[in-house]
Amino acid sequence: TLIVDYAFSHGHVVRLKGGDPFVFGRGYEEIEYAETFNIETQLVPGISSSVAVPALQRIPVTHRGSSESFWVITGTTRNGEISEDLYTAAKTNATIVILMGLNKLPEIAAVFQNLQKGHLPVAVIQEGSLPTENIAVGSVDTIVAEVKREGLRSPAIIIIGEVVRKNKYAAEQLSLENYLLN
C-alpha cells in the first residue's frame, strides 16, 4: 500500500530491500500489487544472501567431493513450523542453507540428529556482510550451545554440511570438538 501511495503522490518509488525479496520474501507480491494500479515496475536483482553470506566466510555452498548441490529452505513456514522440505533435504548429502530459522535451531538440529547426522558441521552467521557480523560454528550436536554462547540473534543464516569445514575457524573448532569427544 505504501508503494502505491508514494508512487501516486511522488511519481516514483524505490523499494530497496535487504535480504532476498524473491526468496521467502514479498518482492513478487509487491510488484503484482503495484501493477494492479497500472504502476510500471522495474527490478534490479542482487546476489542471494543464501550464497553471498556463506561466501563472505569462505564457505562454498558446493564443493567437489563435499557437496554437489544445495537447498535453500525457510526455517519457519507461514504456520510457524519448520518446512517439510527440511526432512527430505536432511536425508541427502547436499548443503542445507536455512533462512529465517534461528528460532527453530533446536528443532532443526533434532531433524539431523534423528538421522544420526549429529557430526555434520554447522555455521550460523548473524547479520552477514554487516560490520556487526558474527559467526558460531560447531556440529549439529553442539551448534545450539555455540549459538547461545556467542549470543547470536536474528537475522542469521544457518549452513549445514561438510562445506562448512572450508571456513578455517570452523575447521579448527570442529577438530577441537572431535578431539574432546574422543
Topology diagram in text:
Blueprint lengths: L1 H9 L16 H9 L13 H8 L13 E5 L9 H6 L5 E5 L5 H9 L7 E6 L7 E6 L3 H8 L5 E5 L7 H14 L1
Parallel strand pairs: 1-2
Antiparallel strand pairs: 2-5, 3-4, 3-5
Name the beta content range.
5-15%
The order of strands across the largest sheet is 1-2-5-3-4
Shape: elongated
Number of helices: 7
Average of per-residue pLDDT values: 91
> Which structural class matches the secondary elements?
alpha+beta
Strand element count:
5
Termini Cα gap:
58 Å
Low-confidence stretches: none
User: Helix amount, in percent?
Assistant: 25-40%
Q: What's the order of the H and E elements?
A: HHHEHEHEEHEH
What does this structure look like?
By secondary structure, the protein is α+β, with helices and mostly antiparallel strands. The chain has 7 helices and 5 strands; from the N terminus they run H-H-H-E-H-E-H-E-E-H-E-H. A 5-stranded mixed β-sheet has the order 1-2-5-3-4. The longest helix has 14 residues, at 168-181. The chain is elongated, with a radius of gyration of 19 Å. The model has no long low-confidence stretch (mean pLDDT 91).
What characteristics describe this protein?
5-stranded mixed β-sheet; elongated; 15% strand; 182 residues; 7 helices
Provide a short characterization of the protein structure:
The protein is α+β, with helices and mostly antiparallel strands and 182 residues long.
